[in-house]
Write a structure and sequence with these properties.
The chain is of the alpha/beta class. 53% of the residues lie in helices and 13% in strands. An eight-stranded mixed β-sheet has the order 3-2-1-4-5-6-7-8. Bound molecules: 1,4-dihydronicotinamide adenine dinucleotide (NAI) and (2S)-3,4-dihydro-2H-pyrrole-2-carboxylic acid. (2S)-3,4-dihydro-2H-pyrrole-2-carboxylic acid is lined by residues 99, 170, 174-175. Catalyzes the reduction of 1-pyrroline-5-carboxylate (PCA) to L-proline.
Length: 273
């Protein structure tokens, strides 16, 4: 691929840029970024990663195989007007990482037949460990889906889904890292409360998280079975899990995922009116 253009230069764009450069998929200067107004932010990304930055729409979009929309959903309309006026070349693929926003909303601003692909990555793209789901808009065929999937596979794993699944995907793997960081925050604080040195507690917790993810990946057992294997009758784990059950933590986690999925739906509906 010759060139990727990002419209929006925030946290998600930076995670993807960092991952793409680390994966050595294309030279840093073939990654182009623009944003709304923050020139200092663009300069910072240029100095840090060697990416190309521009305020010129023509320069940004010229020869870009893929154009990644990476602004907040509230700014989608302005960005689509910017693209509408740009008159894209047929075949330039518009990729959206925007939570909630349907491809049908984006397609309204583009010439008929312009391929649009909706993706939901997560910030672990930074370290090439993103979990990404990819869904086709009406004009995206297998060539575009393969190209976009392989782009996101360079920064982790990518699965293709129907667009209806995107609210659920967003609630699970898009927002998911934040739930796990929240859990990590609570465990870090608790490790200090029970008397561990903060640094040692953090190292033990990081390895514990890594071990759990690898066990789930490599074993045929379910999370419930793996948990049962650790829980001796009358032991420490039973004492801890008993409190989680009493406090309704499983129900709270499920309510959290439902709330995120509902919010993703609402965000989509706000843009279809
Ligand atoms: N942060 C995350 O973990 C994830 C975010 N997303 C999606 O990524 C998108 C971006 O999120 P963040 O990077 O966290 O936001 P952010 O607020 O960090 O960055 C947004 C960027 O867009 C720029 N911008 C706004 N309007 C613009 C316009 N009209 N033209 C050009 N640039 C414009 C802003 O200047 C800023 O650089 C959101 O739509 C979000 O739903 C998706 C997956 C995960
Ligand atoms: O919070 C959000 O809306 C975005 C989408 C997934 C992760 N962050």
């Amino acid at each position: 691929m010759k060139k990727i253009a990002f419209i929006g230069a925030g946290a998600m764009a930076e995670a993807l840029v960092k991952g793409l450069i680390a994966a050595e998929q294309l030279p840093a200067e073939a990654i182009w970024l623009t944003n709304h107004a923050n020139e200092a932010r663009l300069q910072e990304l240029h100095s840090e990663y060697g990416v190309s930055i521009t305020r010129s729409r023509t320069e940004l979009l010229r020869d870009a195989a893929v154009i990644i929309l990476s602004m907040k959903p509230k700014d989608a309309e302005a960005a689509m007007l910017y693209l509408k006026e740009a008159k894209l070349k047929p075949g330039q693929i518009v990729v959206s990482v925007l939570a909630g926003i349907h491809t049908s909303f984006l397609e309204k601003y583009l010439p008929e037949g312009q391929p649009v692909v909706r993706v939901m990555p997560n910030t672990s793209a930074t370290i090439l460990e993103a979990a990404t789901a990819v869904a086709a808009g009406v004009a995206a065929g297998s060539y575009e889906m393969r190209l976009v999937s392989s782009l996101f596979e360079t920064v982790g794993t990518a699965v293709q889904v129907e667009e209806e699944a995107m609210d659920a995907v967003t609630a699970i793997s898009g927002s998911g890292p934040a739930y796990l960081y929240y859990m990590m925050e609570a465990l870090e604080e608790a490790s200090i409360q029970v008397g561990l040195d903060a640094f040692i507690g953090k190292q033990l917790l990081i390895q514990t998280f890594k071990g759990v993810a690898k066990m789930l990946e490599q074993s045929d057992l379910t999370p419930a079975q793996l948990r049962a294997n650790i829980t001796s009758a009358g032991g420490t784990t039973a004492a801890g899990i008993g409190v989680l059950e009493e406090q309704g933590v499983k129900a709270a986690v499920q309510a959290c995922v439902h709330a995120a999925a509902t919010r993703s739906k609402e965000m989509g509906q706000a843009f279809t009116k």
